[in-house]
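User: For documentation purposes, I need each entry recorded in a consistent format: the amino acid sequence on its own, followed directly by the corresponding structure tokens. There are two entries in this batch. Please keep commentary to a minimum and don't merge the entries.

Assistant: Recorded as requested. Entry 1:
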Amino acid sequence: MRAADTLDQGRRSFDRRAWADAYAQLSAANHAAPLESDDLESLATAAYLTGRDADSIEAWERAHHEHVRRGVAERAARCAFWLAFSLFHSGESARGGGWLARARRLLDEDRRDCVEQGYLLVPEAIQRFDEDCATAYAIAGQAAEIGERFDDRDLVTLARQIQGRALLRQGQAAEGIALLDEVMVAVIAGDVSPIVAGDVYCSVIEACQEVFDLRRAHEWTAMLTHWCDSQPDMVLYRGQCMVHRAEIMVLHGAWPDAVAAVDQACEHLLRGSGQPAAGAALYQQADLHRLHGRFAEAVEAYRAASRWGREPQPGLALLRLAQSQPTAAEAAIRRVANEAHDRVTRLRLLPAYVEIMLAVRDVQAARVAADEVLRIADELNAPLLDALAESAHGAVLLAEGNARAALGALRRAWKGWQQLEAPYEAARVRVHIGLACRDLGDADGAAMELDAARWVFRQLGAESDLARAEALSRRPPAKAAGALTAREVEVLGHVAAGKTNRAIAADLFLSEKTVARHMSNIFAKLGITSRAAATAYAYQHDLV
């Protein structure tokens, strides 16, 4: 086949978004005869979308130099921008910064008024995003104005999504979400290039997850999946898409599907080098191993996620807790909680922090964290966050010995998880509801709640949660003992076994202060004043 025919085929494949064919045909044509700058840009795009980072960068570089040779500074600067975009995404920030500096020099030499000036504002806005959202918003606004003036939808879309996310970070959730919805209209309508569409899809979904807007995250993930499925050769965004899908599948209890999706994501993202989403995929893979009780595999996956730049917490701390290593879990979660200052990061850590603090019987620390989640939930008004907040609040109330108040919060949490169709989280709440019922003397209610939780854990394959629920269920039901509650009878049995308050607290997942309160109630109800008398009473009434 003649080189010209191969080139024509490559152009047609590019137009119909058959990226693998376009890459193969344009590469073949390039080997036969050097491509012109426009075709080099197409080759760079096809290589990028099929995960061939090195080939993409080489093609962008050649296109840049060709535009410089022909004296087309604007196009040369545009290629330098996409070079920097690719390099930043692959973690090569210094090299990417060098290409941005070259692009600025090209445009500054002739003081050119062109749309590329707006493109060069985009990375500047992104760099300011974490430290000064207001400034990032303003810079992105300048870029959007330039894009509007030159009618460049790619630039407008990139800039507006930065503004939307900056508004979210500044606590203006309604305004930020509205702007991101507007951005997505342009993406869905096909008004932007594939690279911009994929980048914005993933950015907007991530933003929805940051503010716990599960409905929007689910909707945009479904749209991203459809978009990716229409371009099956595409590697880059398919991997990120699968990670987002897996997170939602886990929440909805579709764990086998989540395992398949995250395994595919890892395969796609680890095929090349420098894929930042690989760390997120490996972390999700580790979480699934942990939930299924495959602890050795989970440790390895968390370590791999860390190598790819993903903080392995709070998953690794929860794993150590499940492995009966509470000291390691506590040290890890305290460290990351102390380092986390932005609201989004803290929200991802605090539920695990509460769980671990309760396990090590630091109820006061758990209370402070649960109160923080409640405050943020009131501000954001997101159903997922409300369920998280009520779950943490109820668990702390239970540990504080206020079973009646705990039951109210836990019932609200369970209803929230049910409405979100989140069976695993709902089952975890039912374990606490069962313990609250036990504290209130309702042995039948406790047994039924624990049985329901065990059934869900068994269906999901949540081995460590199942083991704990079964251990709690095996405890003997309370026997009649005057006015003692079921929990007080349970504490009395442990006292008769010669255990200290600290040992009883560890066995029953309570604080020592709560155990002391139970002891005080037992003494008052039975009219006794010593542990020896309590032990004698327990044996006399067949409570041990």
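Entry 2:
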Amino acid sequence: MIGRALGHYEVVGLLGSGGMGEVYRARDTKLDRDVAIKVLPDDLAADPGRLARFEREAKLLAALNHSNIGAIYGLEESDGVRFLVLELIQGETLAQRLQAGALPVPEALEIARQIAAALEAAHDAGIIHRDVKTANVLVTPRGGVKVLDFGIAKSTVPGGSLEATAEATGLTADGALMGTPPYMSPERIRGKEADKRADIWAFGCVLYEMLAGKEAFHRETVADTLAAILEREPDWEALPEDTPASIRRLLQRCLRKPPAERLQHIGDARIVLNETIAGSRQAAGDPTPAAVMPPPSIMRRLVARGLPAALVMALLAVAAFFLLSRADDPPPSPPTEPAYARTALAVLPFRNLSADAANAYFAGGLHDELLTQLSSVVALSPRGRASVMGYAETTKPIRQIAEELRVGTILDGSVQVVGERLRVSVQLVDAATDEQLWANSYDRALDDVFAIQSDVAQQVVAAVGATLGSGERQAMTEMPTANAEAYRLYLQGLDYYRRPGYLRQNNEIAQQLYEQALELDPEFALAHAALSQVHGRMHWLRYDPSPERVVAQREAAEAALRLAPELPQAHLAMGRWHYHGRRDWAAALAEYAIALRGLPNNAELVARIGYVHRRLGNWDEVYAAFERAAELDPRAADIFWDLGGNTYRFTRRFAEAIRAYDRALTLAPDIQTASLRKGWTYVRWQGQLDTLRVALDRIPRDAMLDNRESAAQTRAVLLLFERDAVSLLEHLESIRPDVLESQTSFVPKSLYAAWAHQLRGDEAAARLAFAAARERLDSVPRDLQDDWRVRESRGLALAGLGRREEALEEARWLEQSVIYRGDAFGGTSLAEGRALILAQAGEAEAALDEIERLLAGPSEFSVHSLRLDPRWDPIRDHPRFHALLAAHAE
């Protein structure tokens, strides 16, 4: 090809060749510039599959626009030759650079940071590279990095994947591997379908190679290399001594063999690298300019160019150790002495071996009740349910699980129903020595499920060297009901109640099962307590906001207490009625304190005590409850993002809030609510919208999240803060519900439309929309007419219509609400809504009084809310407004 002309491209020299084509340097005579051209040789061009992949590479590259990805200029044909026209990049491949040995740690981390940024951009576009390796990374003389060669990349966008089914797994149609063996993930080697986590594996291999100076799984033959990938660990001792601990943890997570246990998002790797680099610079006394936040307009341009906003944000050096904390460390070297006491124990989810799916509840219910019994023993420190549930069907070794949960013993078991027999096998293992402390198998009638559960609990207590008090022994051995069928129905109800997502259907089924149990045994106190909690959840989540539901919650709790005055679950149920049904925080706290005496190690109960203190404004007690709950349930993502993250954000401890949200997302990357709350933290803290925008882009537009958070509403508020009226109106047209609702808002779409029309200066359209919003709010069911969320939105609609006195009446109603007056956590939402109504109705001084109060104490409010939200425009020019911004600048 050298010396040949392909159209207006003159081929100058060969740059390289590979399985997917040859790359040449060429001169573009039209534009007078040097380019690279990738040519598909004649023998490959004759293969329809190869030709399709070649064309697909062009389309995938065209879909990407990122500074760390080589650009494509075109796909052309000349004289029967098909070729890609690519950006010519000066430099050497990473493979060439590594021929001289390992790179200095700072240089390796900077290169890895840019590789991660490129892969994040590709993954966000739905593209998996599938051939990440040192030969496909080019380093420029100035230290820039370009990820090249998307020849076997795969699109995950619906309708965008052109490869054959076999190729989706990493195999060609004839069974040959696609990719480069030393960098292939275990699932690709096994011929299983691979996703973006295969790229994360390969990224880990590249980072390891840069630091260690050798491939992570290098062996003499390809077969031995593949076997090592499947069966061996890299030589961790080969990493240089000055490799930061955060990077060691990152590598170990990237190179975990099961994809489900691997790092889930390459963006998390980029954040760790950013923060480690920034921390190293700061430790060396280098005041890196990356720690300075650019203006939002610059942030927006960076995002538009494909650079994630978090790349800039992360350099604020929010401690990377929390993102990938000790709980995610790999198995340590065998300790010479036990790392944790035997009384610190974990009960792993029992494996369900029943052939009939209808009997699966036995495993889950028995496991849940056993955890409850063990949490009642003062001498034990069992890990909470949320932490252990992540180990269902795990393949991790015992020692690794013990280190992650910080326990000394682990109870493992299986449950099988065969006909009318219940077979349960359990074993208790010392994590430090792998010694079996106790084991047993039970083969009994189904009616004996409680007896089995009780015996296991007592044997575990004895085996770890703890003792039971007389009250604890009685609670552990006393049958909660004499009716075995009622107990089985209770276990089934518990299984549905515990299912993730708080789905209405699961709670309704749980209610029915508890009610059936009580029909068989009306004196079953534990079932009354459980039924009360279902009623409370149905009302609190507004699945059924009727007063009758609150009455049912109270009656069930009272029945439980009447039948079993000492039962901790009965006091827990009564506490939840005081909390959810009456909003009587002090009474709830008193009941929870009684329950805690019977369940001293119950993480859920400790967290609930924290939530009560949050309503009372006892912030030190909330922090203490969070720390204790996190100790008991160290892998409970909900505890970290809600009790931890939300509290820290509310009390303006923003950096700690970010760490808590990151911890939750490390434990459960699919918790979309946590991602959004993290985004809102940056909005309140720094007025930065990009993190929230990125989080929203990963969520379906109409998604309803946990706690009834609405992705559609969050996007509406974001567009409002951006003053993007056109996009806001388009967004409202594209979503289904006519009301955007969450636990803290009930806003008709027409109200958002009215504000959008105001931004456009179309007062006539705004007035029509305000009128439509008022009409919609006036038509809500009777149960919602005195809902503060409805009253707030109604006041804003009336203010928009110029009906000042009626709007002010709604503001007065909010001020008299028990939530406004007696809820330190939830009341600030009403205060902010009241201030908005006052501002819209022309009561500037009263609005500013409320704003000043909100800014002075804990709340969701901040000076950035004032700056960004256009609904404050009516008072924006007031001297006090500017004074408050200056006085409370973060």
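Summary note for entry 2:
The first strand starts at residue 5 and ends at 6.
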